[in-house]
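User: I'm curious whether this sequence folds into something compact or stays loose and floppy. Could you predict its structure so I can see for myself?
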Amino acid sequence: MNKYLSLIIALISFTSYGQEILEHMDIWSPPTPVFSQNFDWLKLRSGEWLKGDIISMYEDELEFESEEFNTIIFDWQDVTELRSRFDQQIRFANGEVKEGFLIVKDQHLVLISGGSEQHYPLSELLSITSSSDDRKGLWDGKISLGIDVNSGNVNQLDYLVNARIQRRTPFTRFRVDYIYNYSKSTFDDEDKVLTDTSRLTLYLDWFYSSKTFFRVFDYEYFTDVQQNIKSRDTLGLSLGYHLVKNKRLQWDVTLGPSYQQTVYYNTSDESDQKSGVIALGTLFDYSISSKIDYIFDYQLQFVEENSGKRNSHLKTGLEFEFRDNFELDFTFFIDRVAKPVASADSLPPKSNDYRLILSLGYDF
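Assistant: Here's the prediction. I'll summarize afterward.
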């Protein structure tokens, strides 16, 4: 009996001693880094710190560039702390824009400017961009190239160039898109152009609110040998609205007036046609996963009959990121002129032109 009693007393003593040790032990936590002013600093929900450059934050996604990991996009909900070394432009949900050094911590935003601090709830933050206009982070772009060479019974060369460049600030978006498609048959040593078309579009959007924007400048240049169009210039403006806008899906619609001038290669009538335009467009961009995007871009122009009556352009397809910033694009195009204008010595062209393109792209 005394043996068991001694054992119980020893266990109680050991437990009490262990509790005293735990009470005096400090719980280990990762050390907070010394914030060098040569870097911006980012802390993730996992407790990890990264140093580098804040590129931008839009639509609940933070783009951050690290020397070790290059450019990474983080979900905003995974960011617990953020510190900038340069002034940042901060846009709030009410449309107000302020500038200063940025600290995000504990669901609060601190903006330091002119030696004073301003505090805001983090829920009011809409976007972050650098206040330095020469920072490369304000720009992004992509270029794709597709080539198809056939020889033997069919001698043919096809290629497509597709390029895009864009600049974003808290209040504006400037974008340029260019598509060039060329196809040539060299059968029996005779070159015959099968396709020769190009389209250049550029526009400037001004964001009035988180949902509404004005396309204050909208220009398109189009040429197509097969459609007998030597040049078609369209200049206008429009009102835009974000039907849906989040980190995975963006769906915009635009509507507005334009002016169009079309020059044909050769017609029995005057070759220079002018028309007013009602332009309608929609852009649907959905991230199926972190590596796959789906795009549906449709533009429709209502014009006078001698300018085609209805001109439309459709681009839709999938973009697969397979390594770093390289992507494989599978894209389907339809260009349509409802009432094509024939040259003086031939039948009218067909209304629709279709292209299915597989191309390699680089996102930068």
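Summary: The radius of gyration is 29 Å. Helices lie at 2-24.
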